[in-house]
Amino acid sequence: MLSDFRIAVIGANGQLGTDLVSYLKRGEDIKIIPVYHSPSNLEGTYLDVSNQEQVKEFFKDCHPNIVINTAAFHKVDLCEEHPERAFEVNAFGAKNLAKSSRMYGSTLVHISTDYVFDGNLGRPYSEEDIPNPVNAYGKSKLEGENLIKDTLGGENYFIIRTQALYGLSKSSVKGTNFVETILKSGKEKKLVKVVNDQITNPTFTKDLAEGITSLIETERYGTYHLTNQGSCSWLDFAREIFRLENIDAETVPVTTEEAAILFDCKARRPLNTSLNTKKASKLGINLRPWSKGLEEYLKYRKKNGI
Question: How do residues 157-188 score in pLDDT, each as one tens digit?
Fold first, then answer.
């Protein structure tokens, strides 16, 4: 269904962007346009989504049929310290892409977050539940969602909320996802302190990339939740990583309140933002259980010599 399409992947060197480019390249008649935030030795285009003129020029030059926006200012504590930058990228950057998408008739696929919710519902959040973010990151991402909807109405966009992403990229092997951070900690320390009262859906970006592609092909526009199946605490996630890798480290549970002091967290974290994915499931899009995704990720990283 995506034959002869020109698909721009913004944030192509990030974890999700890397897997999206890899998966989409399987379609030999699809033209992939990798887009990066800053100049690099990778073949592609440089674009700052918060720069409206750059965005306009990009669309004018490339004429993409589909734009997948994985770009985000997503370090939660930095967002709390620099909310203006969070809104520049996560909100106004999304608006810039939406305006040019409307002008050129492109479909915009925007990646959002579970942090648009406050975590107090007591069950997995559906797309119909009312957002109520508790930190600057969540507020900026929600504003991005709203600006896309206001700009594009009900046409030509997908807003995809997901969470707890991990995948292989140049950034992830430096320890910028939870799996890599925990592996490093487990090998260096006898005791590893992990939050036990925050519930999430760990999501392998390889699985998410496949799910996003399938969703685009349906042309059923709107807002969707898309994660690997099942939820757990960050503590249980860490313990499963250690079990699969046979790492003999003791995990020590800590509360969110304790962690805020221990790790000097600037931003408030919601407790249970697990997501209900039944809407996507009704379209036949189901990602595998999170534990199976984790198993493949760990095998994949060994295969790549990490």
Answer: 999 999 999 998 765 555 589 999 999 999 99
Strands (E), 92-221: 107-113, 157-162, 165-166, 191-195, 199-200, 203-204
If one counts the domains in the chain, the total is 1
pLDDT digits (tens, 9 = 90+) for 27-57: 778 999 999 987 666 667 889 999 999 999 9
CATH number of the domain enclosing 31? 3.40.50.720
Cβ–Cβ < 8 Å for 42, 69: no
In a domain, 161, yes or no: yes
Burial 61-97 (b: 16+ CB within 10 A, else e): ebebbbbbbbbbbbebbbbbeebeebbbbbbbbbbbb
Distance from C-alpha of 157 to C-alpha of 164, rounded to nearest angstrom: 23
Is residue 145 domain-resident? yes
CB atoms within 10 A of CB 197: 17
* Helix segments in 168-225, DSSP class H: 178-188, 205-218
Beta bridge partners of 192: 251
Contacts of 58 (CB under 8 A, 6+ apart): 8, 35, 45, 47, 100
pTM over 0.85: yes
pLDDT at 243 over 80: yes
Any idea which residue has 């504590």 for tokens?
A: 77
Helices (H), 153-289: 178-188, 205-218, 234-245, 256-262, 278-281
Give the number of residues written for the chain.
306
What band does 199 get if pLDDT is binned at 50, 70 and 90?
A: very high
Structure tokens at 255: 């509360």
> Does residue 45 lie in a domain region?
yes
Residues paired with residue 98 on neighbouring β-strands, in sequence order: none
Query: pLDDT tens, 285-306?
Result: 999 999 999 999 999 998 887 7
**Side-chain half-sphere exposure of 85, counting CA atoms within 13 A:** 13
